[in-house]
């Protein structure tokens, strides 16, 4: 949701911590793509319901070597694990229930969630934006880092211009 300061903090924190970024939708504005470009590895993004200017988002992504926009859904094998990424939680839950994926990532509702559906792990990293629209309330701005070797998920919190890990794997209550 084009929160520049929080996204910059997340991208800085992910350098050296992650090999790839999976963005679960709602880039919102084309000026977000150059910020994502600053991540050294691949950035895979899907569209969300607030990505109205898809044409200009795609133009910006075409100017990069690492930011790839995948439409509504992204499927890939990364780190030996099979992933699906979709913006909407209801679609993500159906994908997870299929049994075809190790991990399904989603966003949309801005509610942090690490769940399970059969053998599939569901991941909603929360909202870097730091706002939950349906509740009209501020929430802790978070993202997660997944280690595909150990399947450990570490939640990161953004405060000010910095991001730091939460070893518990959950945002603060």
Walk me through the structure.
- This protein is α/β, with parallel strands linked by helices.
- The protein is 20% helix and 32% strand.
- It is built from 4 helices and 13 strands.
- It has helices spanning 4-14, 33-37, 54-62, 89-97; strands at residues 21-23, 43-45, 67-69, 73-78, 81-86, 103-105, 113-117, 120-124, 131-132, 137-138, 142-146, 153-159, 162-166.
- The protein has a 5-stranded mixed β-sheet, with helices on one face. The chain has a 3-stranded parallel β-sheet with strand order 1-2-3.
- The longest helix has 11 residues, at 4-14.
Strand coverage percent: 25-35%
Globular, elongated, flat, extended or rod-shaped: what is the shape? globular
Q: What radius of gyration results from the CA coordinates? A: 15 Å
What is the count of β-strands?
13
Average of per-residue pLDDT values: 95
Tally of helical segments = 4
Kindly state the percentage of residues in helix: 10-25%
In terms of per-residue confidence, which ranges show pLDDT below 50 for 5 or more consecutive residues?
none
Main sheet specs? 5 strands, mixed
Order of helices and strands: HEHEHEEEHEEEEEEEE
Biggest β-sheet: strands ordered side by side in the sheet: 4-5-6-8-7
Span between N and C termini? 23 Å
Structural class: alpha/beta
């Amino acid at each position: 949701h084009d929160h520049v300061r929080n996204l910059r903090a997340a991208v800085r924190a992910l350098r050296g911590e992650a090999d790839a970024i999976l963005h679960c939708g709602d880039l919102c504005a084309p000026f977000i793509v150059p910020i994502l470009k600053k991540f050294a590895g691949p950035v895979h993004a899907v569209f969300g319901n607030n990505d109205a200017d898809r044409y200009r988002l795609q133009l910006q992504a075409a100017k990069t070597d690492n930011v790839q926009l995948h439409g509504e859904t992204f499927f890939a094998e990364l780190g030996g694990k099979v992933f699906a990424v979709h913006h909407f939680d209801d679609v993500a839950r159906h994908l997870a229930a299929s049994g075809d994926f190790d991990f399904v990532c989603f966003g949309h509702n801005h509610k942090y969630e690490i769940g399970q559906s059969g053998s599939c792990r569901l991941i909603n990293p929360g909202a870097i934006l730091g706002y939950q629209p349906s509740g009209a309330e501020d929430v802790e701005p978070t993202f997660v880092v997944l280690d595909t070797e150990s399947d450990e998920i570490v939640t990161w919190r953004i405060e000010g211009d910095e991001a730091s890990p939460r070893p518990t794997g959950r945002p603060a209550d």
